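User: Sequence in, structure out. Go.
Assistant: Echoing your sequence, followed by the structure tokens.
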Amino acid sequence: MYQVMLLNDDFTPMEFVVNVLQRFFGMGREKATQVMLKVHREGRGVCGVFPRDVAATKVEQVSSYSRQHQHPLQCVMEEA
């Protein structure tokens, strides 16, 4: 299993991060806001734990979506 995480940066708006968490990880607004604040405060936040292929797909979806909206948000995965 692999953890999918978002990494903090100084440019991506907090609202965009909340939107990404809701759109790609099925979080409610409150949970998405909590994770976004964790990313903001601690530099990274776990979005979920998935099998390898699902995690890789999520990373690619988030990375692509962020680039399309011209944000440098980074999404990574690591073994859980």
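User: And one key feature?
Assistant: The first strand starts at residue 2 and ends at 7.
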